[in-house]
Amino acid sequence: MIDLSESDREEAISKLQQYLLEELDVELGSFQLQFLLDFFSENIAWRYYNQGLADALQATEKKLDEVAELVYELEQQGPAES
Questions:
Q1: pLDDT of 48-64, one tens digit each?
Q2: Quick one: angle between helices 30-43 and 45-74, nearest 10?
Q3: Which among 50, 52, 44 has a CA at the least distance from the CA of 16?
């Protein structure tokens, strides 16, 4: 489960409550919203976390390829053989 600071948790619950009310016309109490947020944290959030790691790895690999190209461009040739 992803641990949130108390302020981030409160903000997430508030946004979840607002969304449910405005989009689905569903009103839940704070206790129910906490359980819903816990459910998302335990069962869904890890997928977003893993995708974030995969995206970061892909971006890092792309940058490393760019650095490798720059290093190869710096290579010098020895004197031509006669």
A1: 999 999 999 999 999 99
A2: 40
A3: 44
Taking the model in full, what pTM does it have?
A: 0.70
Nearest to 35 by CA among 1, 61, 58: 1
Q: Residues 14-44: pLDDT tens digits? A: 999 999 999 999 999 999 999 999 999 999 9
What residue type is 27 in one-letter code? E
Residue whose token pair is 């040739």: 77
CA distances from 41 to 26, 47, 81 (A): 20, 10, 66
Q: Long-range contacts made by residues 21-25, C-beta under 8 angstroms, separation at least 24?
A: none
Contact (Cβ atoms closer than 8 angstroms) between residue 30 and residue 13: yes
Give alpha helix (H) positions in the chain: 6-24, 30-43, 45-74
